[in-house]
Amino acid sequence: MIRRFLSKNKAVLGYGLSLAVLLFILKWLELRFVIYDHAMELYVGAIALMFTLLGIWLARKLTRPQKETIIIEKTVYPDTSLGFVPNETEIAGLGISKRELEVLELMARGFSNEEIANRLFVSLNTIKTHSSRLFEKLDVSRRTQAVEKAKRLRLIP
């Protein structure tokens, strides 16, 4: 059956195959001429596509959320220094002297040890001694912890 179909339509199939080959060659030549005539536009388009893909990749890398999000919560106490009354009971209970309280207040205002020493007309070593005693009495290890705890205990405004 297939043989009979091929023998009857041998000429039609030959012409069809030759037209397909000729059409393929013409399209291939047309494509070559398009590429030669528009080579610069094709290069610019390829470079633009490459930079677009690079931009998308970089934007995804830079805007990716961190693997682990850390949430820090801190209690903020309102500044009530105008009507502030220090907690004398707590000051006496901790055994903080008036000079140590002055040093603590200056620490809270952001002064360095050297600036505190100049303001109080004492040596730098004296301020360091007062600071270390304050840290012991407040049971803290850093200035920021000392200031935060003193505000919480209402020792300073």
Please provide a written account of the structure.
The chain has 157 residues and is mainly alpha-helical. The protein has two domains: 2-62, no CATH class; 88-152, Winged helix-like DNA-binding domain superfamily/Winged helix DNA-binding domain (Arc Repressor Mutant, subunit A, Orthogonal Bundle). It is 70% helix and 0% strand. The protein contains eight helices and no strands. The chain has helices at 2-8, 10-37, 39-62, 88-94, 98-108, 113-120, 124-138, 143-152. Helix 5 (98-108) crosses helix 8. The longest helix has 28 residues, at 10-37. The radius of gyration is 42 Å and the shape is rod-shaped. The N and C termini lie far apart (107 Å). 11% of the residues are buried. The mean pLDDT is 84.
* Overall number of structural domains: 2
CATH topological fold name of the largest domain: Arc Repressor Mutant, subunit A
- Low-pLDDT runs: none
How much is the average pLDDT? 84
Q: CATH homologous superfamily of the largest domain, by name?
A: Winged helix-like DNA-binding domain superfamily/Winged helix DNA-binding domain
Structural class: mainly alpha
Helix content: over 70%
Biggest pleated sheet: none
Amount of beta strand = under 5%
Q: Between the first and last Cα atoms, what is the distance in angstroms?
A: 107 Å
CATH architecture descriptor name of the largest domain: Orthogonal Bundle
CATH class identity of the largest domain? Mainly Alpha
Quantity of strands, as a count? 0
Order of helices and strands: HHHHHHHH
